[in-house]
Amino acid sequence: MPRVVAGKCKGTILEAPKGESTRPTTDKVKEAIFSSIQTRIPDSAFADVFSGTGQMAIEALSRGAESAVLIDQAGTSVRSITRNLDKTHLTSSARLLRMTYHEALRLLGKEGASFDIIFMDPPYAMAEKYSKSVSEAIEKHGLLRPGGIFIVESDTSAKIQENVTNMTCIKSCKYGSTLVTFFVESETMQK
């Protein structure tokens, strides 16, 4: 079972949907990701695409993020996310969008939303396709704030860097069979 690693909700055990429809990020990988972005978390706006259990957004909120948007269309995931937000008393800082990632990112763009950190952990078999599609939507809708970061969790065999063509990879780390890749907008790197 996933748990909150640090912050005000540290140690809280979170619910995961039964079955194999979700694959929660391991504590080791989650800790490594948050160690890499710890200075970006306080007062940030965080988006979690393919949220699953909601644990990444909950971890960000627990560590001091100001707000989080969680995106998932699966009913079992939405129920788990809702219960996990209730359990951690973070519901007021979170917004759950039960819709496809396309619909959610388009809606957020229409609303003028933007984020400091956008995290994505899609089904590994579709990671290459989804990383390209999500990164294009981020750019099209202006969802990443200046200096913001886009993080993709995938299988180590995925060719994420080749698919996220509108951003610059700043770091890629392997943890067993998991690959975590960090991107910033290409314009940010040129400044």
Write the layout of secondary structure elements.
Elements lengths: L26 H11 L7 E5 L5 H8 L4 E5 L3 H14 L5 E4 L3 H11 L3 E6 L6 H15 L2 E12 L4 H4 L3 E9 L2 E8 H5 L1
Parallel strand pairs: 1-2, 1-4, 2-3, 4-5
Antiparallel strand pairs: 5-7, 6-7
Helix pairs in contact: 4-5
Index terms:
191 residues, Rossmann fold, seven-stranded mixed beta sheet, 7 helices, 7 strands, globular
Account of the 3D structure:
By secondary structure, this protein is α/β, with parallel strands linked by helices. It has one domain: 3-Layer(aba) Sandwich (Rossmann fold). Helix content is 36%, strand content 26%. It contains 7 helices and 7 strands. Strands 3-2-1-4-5-7-6 form a 7-stranded mixed beta sheet, with helices on both faces. The relative contact order is 0.15. The mean pLDDT is 92.
CATH class: Alpha Beta
DSSP summary: helix tally: 7
CATH architecture: 3-Layer(aba) Sandwich
The topology string of helices and strands comes to HEHEHEHEHEHEEH
**How would the global form be characterised?**
globular
Q: Any low-confidence stretches, pLDDT <50, length ≥5?
A: none
Task: Describe this structure in a few short sentences.
By secondary structure, the chain is α/β, with parallel strands linked by helices. It has a single domain (27-190), classed as Vaccinia Virus protein VP39 (Rossmann fold, 3-Layer(aba) Sandwich).
